[in-house]
UniProtKB/TrEMBL annotation:
GO cellular component terms, semicolon-separated: membrane
Signal peptide annotation: none
Protein name (database record): Rhomboid family intramembrane serine protease
Pfam families: Rhomboid (PF01694)
Gene3D superfamilies hit by this protein: Rhomboid-like (1.20.1540.10)
Main location: membrane
Length: 183
């Protein structure tokens, strides 16, 4: 997560050097040629204040998804699902021509993923992480509502839905003793 966080900063530094040119590579709503931008838009930010607001939650929540058994596989799967769902929501729900970029859709997805994962895992460690995440970052979930101009509630909402979807798809298989017998 340290390396990815450094990549976010390097990308923004290069964007400043190239006078904001990278910003044009965000997700451009309703433009079919922009759909691939869904994959790299979380790496792009509209200035250092945008990046600073995303840095700590990106690092902490990404790390919490990463730690534990099957960490890298779980992190890759959840992050891919969240990135695609968040990006599609920004692409589809934003006004045509609007450009969306930033890691906040991924952050919203990780919050919802971690909270639901704790419930679905029926594991005390995962549940404790869920409670800690809910206490520490649960307030950000208000960002799925259209309350501020210039903030992509569409990407936030898509990220939250993507996190729920990822937690459901990647939920742990129930132990044999918990499964109903098939006759």
């Amino acid at each position: 997560m340290g390396g990815l966080t450094a990549l976010l900063w390097l990308t923004e530094i290069l964007d400043v050097v190239f006078m904001g040119w990278f910003d044009s590579f965000g997700i451009r709503a309703w433009d079919l040629t922009s759909l691939p931008a869904i994959l790299w838009a979380p790496l792009l930010h509209f200035g250092f204040s945008h990046l600073i607001s995303n840095t700590l939650p990106f690092f902490v929540l990404g790390w919490l998804v990463l730690v534990g058994r099957n960490g890298m596989r779980r992190w890759l799967g959840a992050s891919a699902i969240i990135t695609v769902v968040s990006g599609l929501a920004a692409w589809f729900l934003s006004a045509p021509g609007t450009i969306t970029a930033g890691a906040s859709g991924l952050i919203f997805g990780w919050v919802t993923y971690l909270v639901l994962r704790g419930v679905l895992a029926r594991d005390i460690r995962a549940l404790v992480i869920s409670v800690v995440v809910l206490i520490g970052y649960g307030g950000v979930l208000w960002g799925v509502l259209p309350t501020q101009t210039g903030i992509s509630w569409q990407a936030h909402l898509g990220g939250a839905v993507g996190g729920l979807l990822a937690a459901w798809i990647m939920r742990p298989e129930r132990p044999a003793r918990d499964r109903p017998l098939v006759r």
